[in-house]
Design a protein that fits this description.
- The chain has about 220 residues and is of the alpha+beta class.
- It folds into 2 domains: about 60 residues; about 140 residues, Immunoglobulin-like.
- Helix content is about 15%, strand content about 45%.
- It has 3 helices and 11 strands; from the N terminus they run H-E-E-H-E-E-E-E-E-E-E-H-E-E.
- InterPro entries: TMEM106, TMEM106_C, TMEM106_N.
- It is found in: Endomembrane system.
- Belongs to the TMEM106 family.
Length: about 220
């Protein structure tokens, strides 16, 4: 009887590295004892795979948090004088007019910010200590400011000057020189991003033309 015929009713023993044989009918009932230092019990770089997965998840979470964390939104102004106005009513004791003003908005976030509206309260600073509210301004147009970007926003203002300020703006020497009034603009902007709303504010003092001709780039009206 050959070796092959002798081993037909048996299978390799898993606990002796294939060098032994066990009866085939006992294959489902016998329990193999494998030494702890057996190579088959050693993980095949499992720790490396786990480390890479954890590191990848942490890196991805860090990038997402870095991109989504809210950053400051700045309102700034170069305080340019307002040279052109539109006078719609004036008498010796008052003068009313419209004019456009602008400010800059800078978005430091990595996503777009929507400007829902902007409003302004206009105060007279004819005297440095003046706090008289002389008008309002605003813009209700929706505007988007791109990520890491800035843009100019304009808003329309309507003011009425009375008393000594109106008399100053309509004095006879206004024909010879341009006349301005210092005005303080308390600007408030409503912003929306990531389903969140907040407000940004800016207070700035600017010179505004107030002659009845409405044009401070000319000397006659």
């Amino acid at each position: 009887m050959g070796y092959t015929e002798l081993m037909e009713g048996s299978v390799p023993c898993p606990s002796c590295k294939g060098s032994g044989r066990i009866p085939k009918e006992l294959e489902e009932t016998l329990v193999a004892l494998i030494p702890v230092n057996d190579d088959r019990l050693k993980p095949k770089r499992t720790w490396l795979y786990v480390f890479c997965v954890v590191l990848g998840c942490l890196s991805l979470a860090g990038v997402v948090i870095f991109l989504l964390v809210p950053r400051a939104i700045y309102l700034t102004s170069t305080k340019p004088p307002v040279e052109i106005i539109t006078v719609f009513d004036h008498m010796s004791n008052h003068i009313s007019f419209h004019f456009m003003n602008e400010f800059n908005i800078s978005n430091a976030n990595y996503y777009s910010v929507k400007v829902l509206n902007s409003s302004a309260t206009v105060l007279s600073k004819f005297q440095p200590w003046s706090t008289d509210v002389i008008g309002v301004g605003g813009n209700t147009t929706d505007v988007f400011v791109g990520p890491r970007n800035s843009r100019k926003l304009q808003f329309n203002n309507t003011v009425t000057l009375k008393g000594g300020v109106a008399e100053y703006c309509q004095a006879p020497f206004a024909q010879l020189t341009s006349l301005y009034v210092n005005m303080q603009f308390d600007i408030s902007v409503t912003l929306e991003y990531l389903n969140h709303r907040e407000q940004a504010t800016l207070s700035v003092v600017q010179q505004v033309c107030c002659v009845p001709s409405g044009n401070c780039t000319a000397t006659e009206w």
